[in-house]
């Protein structure tokens, strides 16, 4: 069929939708020289008219035409509402296997909506007359045969990142002018939501952008007019000649006052208003905005973030798969109930269906370290997807279609950072609204934003009075608790807080364990008490060893680890790290056991597969006690270049003793694995007094100038008092090494586990471990293949390079 013949035939046609649809589509196939559905797929398994099931509400099919991996296509009669047809397709995208293109047509025009995951949607309109143009026909040809050609160039992540950077600059400028940081953050969160609300149609068309454009001419009006809009959104009602919906939810509260902006800042916001805010990515918007609005995290703005697919490795086994199995059992029971009823309708089937929907709607997810809400949003989306799938599958069985009711009240969070806590609420609100609109549903009203008091701003592991805080009951606990090593906790959290924390959890969490392990223990306790069913948490991969591993061992005493990823890349506070993802629950809960994506018989506390020997039960040999030592820890610039040390070796001292007594070569892991750096260290031993040390004039004078100012600021009294000595001088190591002609050293972290003979004059730094043995037998055992396998298995991995520790 020629383009002209097609245009003339269908311009004259006055057929109604059902009469015209299939003939129009077949003619289109002829025009584009594409096979029709029956020609390409006689069985109708991947390309068919009337794809779907007979719906309870009347009508056949979920789409008038469907081609797997290409499109879903819905027809309406001439002049009918194509937006309604688009919403109908959106409603059934799960049943249609999420086609990348949603196409609607009223014969006079064809509208292609792109629906590629993670991209900003685009719309292509092709009128009947446009079909005379080759480039327009090419768009349709791609839709039929190569939809990837229609994939939009911009991703939602790119749009989100660009917006976050511009908001961060605005936040910086407002803080520079003296506005309080939390006030700035609250103001900009509301601005962000106004942009989003405008672009998804919750505010009258372009209202906020028009307001900004008008105040560009009179910047002094900005504060009063935006404040008036915020107030209208808080209560609902009139704003000039426009009627504003009731938003509230806590974001638009009684404090509706906007901050004053300068002309160039209003211009920046106006430019931001012309972006497509409807497609910002909730799974990353919170993280990026938190970095931009929180002054302490601004340096991380350009850093990467954890992608949603990685977070799904915890959400899938703890939440999605168990509920899917429950639904499959329920659906089988529904099918049996329907089969026993001649009419095809059964009260029992309806009761089973409604009961499962109620189960989903009462399901609760807790993230006790929710940050800016990524886990909560993705968990909510997973629950809404599952509910929608259940509704569609029930409809296919002949039951009535229900309106989705899973909403933001499903998710609970605890977060100590006020910037993150409010952003978590905004993230969940935006994600919920986006999901509803993307699936063809109207957004709830009165209010649009349901209050999210379930996201609490408080400490999750220690109350102000030193007691253990209660967590809300939930079906599932998920999250990414803060990473902070046991040795860094004192410096970051303060000695008083850490002391109270360790005292409160004494006997449950080892004293030297990382901060993240306290969340693991509390989640374990919730499950044991019947206040949660399952948990899935992130930890640094060091949780597999040392004091940290005892927390996983405690989990195995009262339950089991049913899924884990032992060593995965992750992004924490903008830095690339290696983590373990651990899912656990009570014993015999019916979950399949998987480790690193593979089925296993069980999972040990070191996150290795069960079935063989459990080496976490290995005990230390008493014969090897007092043999291996961490090197000296300085806590100050005691090290000096070799040239300076050799000059000092020739200098006299008042008491006639040589500087060689307090100067010695210093080696760390780099010296051992690469080449010596020629570093020396001033070493006044373990008990030399300040008066004695002062007699070694040049070294002592150097420490007075360079070390003393540093150590005087140290939080530990002993480090301040004995500032001329190394903070941890390792007297035990010195006694063990003293009689030896040589000793063995190995780096704490290295790509290869190697051991090197060391001269006794060399002082090992804290990143080297000294082994107090001088015999060849021990050296040979340490370098054997047997010991290498043992060391790699029992040791953990460190940093982004994932090197053995």
What does the model show?
- This protein is an alpha/beta fold.
- Helix content is 41%, strand content 15%.
- It has 28 helices and 27 strands.
- Helix 13 (347-361) packs antiparallel against helix 14.
- The N and C termini lie far apart (71 Å).
Could you tell me how far the N terminus lies from the C terminus, measured between alpha carbons in angstroms?
71 Å
Q: Give the proportion of residues in helices.
A: 40-55%
Placed side by side, the strands forming the largest sheet appear as 11-10-9-12-13-15-14-16-17
Name the poorly predicted regions. 55-59
Report the principal-axis shape: elongated
Query: Describe the biggest sheet?
Result: 9 strands, mixed
Specify the oligomeric state. single chain
Structural class category: alpha/beta
Defining key terms:
805 residues, alpha/beta, six-stranded mixed sheet, 41% helix, elongated
Q: What's the structural blueprint in terms of helices and strands?
A:
Elements (H helix, E strand, L loop, with lengths): L2 H10 L4 H16 L4 H4 L6 E5 L11 E5 L3 E5 L6 H10 L9 E5 L3 E6 L8 E5 L6 H12 L10 H21 L4 H19 L7 H11 L4 H14 L1 E3 L2 E3 L18 H11 L8 H12 L14 H32 L7 H15 L3 E3 L6 H23 L14 E5 L2 H21 L16 E3 L18 E4 L9 H5 L1 H10 L11 H13 L5 E7 L5 H13 L1 E13 L2 E11 L8 E2 L2 E2 L28 E3 L8 E3 H8 L13 E5 L1 H5 L5 E4 L7 H5 L2 H10 L1 H4 L5 H5 L9 H7 L5 E5 L8 E3 L4 E2 L3 E4 L4 H7 L2 H10 L2 E2 L4 E2 L1
Parallel strand pairs: 3-4, 9-10, 9-12, 10-11, 12-13, 14-16, 20-24
Antiparallel strand pairs: 1-2, 2-3, 4-5, 5-6, 7-8, 13-15, 14-15, 16-17, 18-25, 19-21, 20-21, 22-23, 22-25, 26-27
Helix pairs in contact: 6-7, 6-11, 7-15, 8-10, 11-14, 11-15, 12-13, 12-14, 13-14, 14-15, 18-19
């Amino acid at each position: 069929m020629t383009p002209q013949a097609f245009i003339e035939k269908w311009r004259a046609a006055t057929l109604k939708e059902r009469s015209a649809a299939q003939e129009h589509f077949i003619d289109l196939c002829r025009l584009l020289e594409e096979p029709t559905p029956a020609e390409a797929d006689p069985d109708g398994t991947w390309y068919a008219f009337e794809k779907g099931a007979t719906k309870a509400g009347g009508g056949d099919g979920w789409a008038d035409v469907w081609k797997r991996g290409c499109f879903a296509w819905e027809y309406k009669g001439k002049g009918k509402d194509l937006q309604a047809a688009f919403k109908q397709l959106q409603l059934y995208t799960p049943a249609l296997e999420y086609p990348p293109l949603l196409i609607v047509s009223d014969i006079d025009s064809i509208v292609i909506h792109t629906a590629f995951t993670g991209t900003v949607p685009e719309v292509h309109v092709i009128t009947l007359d446009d079909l005379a143009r080759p480039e327009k026909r090419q768009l349709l040809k791609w839709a039929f045969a190569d939809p990837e050609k229609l994939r939009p160039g911009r991703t939602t992540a790119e749009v989100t990142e660009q917006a976050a950077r511009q908001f961060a600059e605005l936040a910086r400028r407002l803080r520079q002018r003296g506005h309080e940081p939390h006030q700035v953050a609250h103001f900009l969160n509301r601005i962000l939501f106004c942009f989003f609300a405008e672009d998804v149609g919750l505010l009258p068309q372009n209202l906020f952008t028009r307001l900004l454009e008008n105040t560009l001419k009179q910047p002094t009006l900005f504060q009063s007019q935006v404040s008036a809009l915020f107030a209208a959104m808080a209560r609902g009602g009139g704003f000039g000649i426009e009627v504003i919906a009731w938003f509230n939810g806590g974001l638009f509260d009684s404090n509706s006052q906007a901050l004053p902006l300068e002309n160039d800042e209003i211009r920046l916001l106006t430019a931001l208003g012309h972006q497509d805010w409807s497609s910002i990515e909730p799974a990353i918007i919170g993280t990026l905005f938190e970095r931009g609005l929180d002054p302490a995290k601004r340096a991380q703005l350009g850093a990467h973030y954890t992608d949603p697919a990685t977070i799904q490795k915890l959400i899938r086994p703890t939440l999605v798969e168990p509920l899917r199995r429950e639904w499959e059992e329920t659906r089988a029971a529904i099918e049996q109930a329907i089969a026993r009823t001649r009419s095809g309708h059964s009260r029992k089937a309806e009761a089973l269906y409604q009961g499962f929907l109620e189960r989903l709607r009462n399901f609760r997810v807790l993230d006790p370290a929710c940050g800016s809400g990524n886990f909560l949003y993705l968990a909510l989306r997973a629950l809404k997807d599952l509910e929608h799938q259940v509704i569609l599958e029930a409809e296919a069985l002949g039951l009535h279609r229900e309106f989705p009711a899973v909403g933001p009240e499903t998710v609970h969070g605890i977060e100590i950072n006020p910037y993150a806590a409010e952003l978590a609420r905004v993230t969940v609100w935006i994600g919920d609204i986006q999901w509803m609109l993307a699936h063809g549903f109207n957004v709830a009203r009165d209010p649009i934003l349901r209050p999210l008091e379930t996201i609490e701003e408080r400490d999750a592991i220690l109350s102000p009075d030193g007691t253990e805080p209660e967590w809300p009951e939930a079906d599932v606990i998920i999250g990414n608790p803060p990473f902070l090593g046991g040795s860094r906790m004192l410096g970051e959290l303060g000695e008083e807080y850490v002391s109270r924390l360790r005292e409160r959890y004494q006997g449950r969490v080892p004293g030297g364990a990382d901060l993240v392990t306290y969340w693991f223990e509390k989640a374990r306790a919730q499950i044991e008490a019947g206040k949660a069913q399952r948990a899935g948490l992130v930890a640094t991969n060091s949780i597999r060893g040392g004091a940290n591993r005892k927390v996983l061992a405690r989990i195995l005493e009262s339950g089991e680890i049913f899924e884990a990823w032992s060593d995965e890349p992750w992004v924490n506070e903008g830095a690339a790290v290696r983590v373990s993802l651990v899912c656990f629950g009570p014993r015999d809960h019916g979950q399949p056991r998987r480790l690193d994506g593979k089925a296993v018989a069980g999972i040990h506390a070191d996150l290795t597969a069960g079935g063989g020997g459990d080496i976490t039960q290995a005990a230390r040999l008493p014969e090897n006690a007092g043999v291996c030592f961490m090197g000296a820890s300085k806590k100050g610039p005691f090290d000096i270049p070799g040239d300076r040390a050799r000059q000092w070796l020739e200098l006299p001292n008042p008491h006639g003793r040589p500087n060689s007594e307090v100067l010695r070569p210093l080696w760390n892991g780099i010296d051992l694995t690469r080449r010596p750096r020629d570093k020396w260290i001033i070493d006044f031993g373990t008990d030399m007094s300040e008066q004695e040390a002062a007699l070694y004039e040049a070294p002592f004078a150097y420490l007075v100038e360079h070390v003393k100012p540093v150590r005087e600021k140290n939080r530990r009294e002993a480090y301040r008092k004995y500032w001329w000595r190394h903070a941890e001088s390792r007297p035990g190591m010195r006694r063990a090494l003293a009689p030896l002609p040589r000793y063995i050293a190995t780096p704490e972290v290295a790509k290869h586990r190697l051991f090197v003979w060391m001269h006794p004059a060399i002082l090992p730094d804290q990143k080297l471990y000294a082994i107090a043995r001088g015999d060849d037998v021990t050296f040979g055992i340490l370098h054997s293949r047997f010991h290498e396998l043992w060391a790699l298995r029992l040791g953990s991995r460190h940093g982004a390079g994932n090197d053995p520790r």
